[in-house]
């Protein structure tokens, strides 16, 4: 059996330490990548849950409007005003509240205008804006906004060409 000199044994030892260090760094990098991916996936899950709750709030608010309930009515607000509202304002009595699974949502409705030349379900169109907010964490919220149309009895005749609207939902957007 061949004997290695102390110098050769030292080089083998240093080489082995270098490979072990590289493997350790690679494992640490992989562990950090997995942890980061889990956090990203969890945050995405929370966002999707909040968005779903806000959509449910829009549907519930639309159903309330169709039945004549305007208890959560606010003056129309700009996007800047809505986004600047604090968490306390959203949780106050100025908004309506509801629950979807384990999430709480809030919404407000704003009357926009009546249009005697827009026909919806053979009646005059009445435009409303619904703004809904849902959040799991206070800093992370989803605010959705929709413009809907409801039928009302025509008060005056249209002097222009009538437009026929086919759906109650006219627009939908996400503000945050």
Going by helix content, strand content and strand pairing, the class is alpha+beta
Structure annotation, total helices: 3
The biggest sheet, with number of strands, parallel, antiparallel or mixed sense and barrel status, is: 6 strands, mixed
What does the radius of gyration come to? 29 Å
Shape, per Cα inertia axes: rod-shaped
Q: What is the mean predicted local confidence, pLDDT? A: 87
Helix content: 40-55%
Helix and strand run: HHHEEEEEE
Uncertain segments of ≥5 residues (pLDDT<50)? none
Fraction in beta strands: 25-35%
Number of DSSP-assigned strands: 6
How far the N terminus sits from the C terminus, by CA atoms, comes to 74 Å
Give the structure's gist in a few sentences.
By secondary structure, the chain is an alpha+beta fold. 40% of the residues lie in helices and 32% in strands.
Key descriptive features of the protein:
about 180 residues; alpha+beta; 6-stranded mixed beta sheet; 3 helices; 6 strands; rod-shaped
Could you characterize what this model shows?
The protein is an alpha+beta fold. It has three helices and six strands; from the N terminus they run αααββββββ. It has helices at residues 6-66, 79-84, 87-90, and strands at 96-100, 103-120, 123-135, 141-152, 163-165, 169-174. Strands 1, 2, 3, 4, 5 and 6 form a six-stranded mixed β-sheet that branches. A hairpin with a 2-residue loop joins β1 and β2 (103-120). The chain is rod-shaped and about 110 Å long.
């Amino acid at each position: 059996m061949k004997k290695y000199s102390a110098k050769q044994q030292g080089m083998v030892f240093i080489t082995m330490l270098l490979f072990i260090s590289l493997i350790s760094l690679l494992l640490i990098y992989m562990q950090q990548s997995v942890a980061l991916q889990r956090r990203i996936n969890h945050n995405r899950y929370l966002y999707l849950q909040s968005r779903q709750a806000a959509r449910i709030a829009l549907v519930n608010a639309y159903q309330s409007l169709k039945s004549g309930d305007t208890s959560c009515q606010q003056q129309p607000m700009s996007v800047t005003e809505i986004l600047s509202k604090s968490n306390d304002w959203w949780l106050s009595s100025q908004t309506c509240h509801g629950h979807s699974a384990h999430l709480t949502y809030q919404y407000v409705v704003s009357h926009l205008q009546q249009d005697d030349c827009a026909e919806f379900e053979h009646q005059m169109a009445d435009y409303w804006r619904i703004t809904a907010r849902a959040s799991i964490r206070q800093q992370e919220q989803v605010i959705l906004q929709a413009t809907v149309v409801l039928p009302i009895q025509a008060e005056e005749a249209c002097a222009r060409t009538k437009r026929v609207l086919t759906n109650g939902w006219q627009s939908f957007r996400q503000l945050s």
